Amino acid sequence: MPTEATSESFDSRLKSVADAIETTLEGLLAPAALPGEVVRPARLLDAMRYSTLGGGKRLRPFLVVETARLFGVEGEGPLRAGAALEMIHCYSLVHDDLPAMDDDDLRRGRPTAHKAYDEATAILSGDALLTYAFDVMAGEATHADAGVRAALVLGLARASGLGGMVGGQALDLEAERATAPHEADFVMRMQAMKTGALLLFGVEAGAILGQASPAERAALKRYGVALGAAFQVADDILDTESDAATLGKAAGKDADRNKATLVAALGLDAAKGRRDALAEDAVAALDAFPAARSALLAEAARFTAQRRS
């Protein structure tokens, strides 16, 4: 288990990166139109900012920033790449909360976007965040090498699209209509797409920015896959054991909606055991790197298992 000093260091670094990402997002979501834009509609921009700023632990961009830092790459590039990934994550939450999807009224302790504005504005704000993410990732300020930028854009598209997050959401909705019990293999595959793909990409984006070797990228992929899986199992457990005040969103909805979760497929105790084993698998994958350099990534893996919200 981590020492107290290491935990404090991780908490401090997570907050520091979250603050830097917040500042980056504030600048990107400013009212002034960019070259090629005509005007940024005020209500639409306000809804985008509402859904993106001032909330969340920013774990996905933390993974981008900290993995890039593993290779000595810091500054504007990783922050922009992390902000682009966070835009994708936030757009997905806006759309997931819609009445046609999960029909949630609460997100991060506040009314969801379609409640705070209206359904049409919520949909458009999600669309705008999605497309703007690729704009940011492709910009020269993210990396001087066009090949690196192209690899980032391709990786983000694959992680967030048909065979990644969006495809996983489709499988999740299909599972709600199933009458047979959900098999663990199906649940794990769906979760690897819906949740795991963006977390894994956060790690891979940092490796792309750091121009990691094939062996280093393979080790980081093992880390990212295990971390992403642990994160979602922890989420399933929190939905079972926590409450809305703690989570900042509705709790206990998974069972009510016949959601495909590992708690349902394996039982609560087995799900907890898998969560903890996955976190340690992620930590073990970092043996390819000096412990002093990868310590915060190891703490990030443990954080996914230990978090309470």
Automatic annotation (TrEMBL):
SUPFAM superfamilies noted in UniProt: Terpenoid synthases
Domain of life of the source: Bacteria
Cofactor: Mg(2+)
GO cellular component, one term: cytoplasm
Keywords: Isoprene biosynthesis, Magnesium, Metal-binding, Transferase
GO biological process, alphabetically ordered: terpenoid biosynthetic process
Gene Ontology terms, MF aspect: metal ion binding; prenyltransferase activity
Gene3D superfamilies assigned: Farnesyl Diphosphate Synthase (1.10.600.10)
Keyword Metal-binding: yes
Matches recorded under InterPro entries: Isoprenoid_synthase_dom_sf (IPR008949), Polyprenyl_synt (IPR000092), Polyprenyl_synt_CS (IPR033749), Prenyl_diphosphate_synthase (IPR053378)
Family per record: Belongs to the FPP/GGPP synthase family.
Annotated protein name in UniProt: Probable farnesyl diphosphate synthase
Species lineage: Bacteria, Pseudomonadati, Pseudomonadota, Alphaproteobacteria, Hyphomicrobiales
